[in-house]
Amino acid sequence: MYLASFNIDGDQYYSVKYVNHSDKEDFLKLVSYNTHYELMDIPFAAINAMTIVKFSIRGHMMM
Q: Which terminus of the chain has fewer Cβ atoms in its 10 Å neighbourhood, N or C?
């Protein structure tokens, strides 16, 4: 899972998604853990920064 910062049409986006190879040349495919979200193909030129997410903290509460 990666944290990605990218610009599309002048808007700044931050997203936490999995990264896969895209079918398009010079693009990355961002895949969400939640299957209700669509896949995103973004050009390499639009990416400002990426970092890998090594761990996450999830809180579960039982009552």
A: C
pLDDT tens, position by position, 45-60? 999 999 999 887 777 7
- 10 within domain boundaries: yes
Structurally, the chain folds into a number of domains equal to: 1
CA pair distance 49, 7, nearest whole angstrom: 10
Quote the pTM value.
0.74
Does residue 58 lie within any of the structural domains?
A: no
Expressed as residue numbers, the domain containing 35 is 2-52
Q: Under a CB-based contact definition with an 8 Å cutoff, are residues 29 and 41 in contact?
A: yes
